[in-house]
Amino acid sequence: MDNPKKLNSEELDKLLEIIERNRWDRLKKRQEENGLVSGSYIGDVQVEADNSSISPDNVKIVLFGTESPFIKSMIEMLRVETVIAFFDDPEKMISFCLDHPVPNLLFDIDPPSDCHLVMDAFASIRMLLPHSRIFVCSSRKGSLEVDYFKMHGANIFDKPILRKQVEKFCKEYCW
Question: What is the structure's pLDDT at 35?
Answer without folding.
Answer: 47
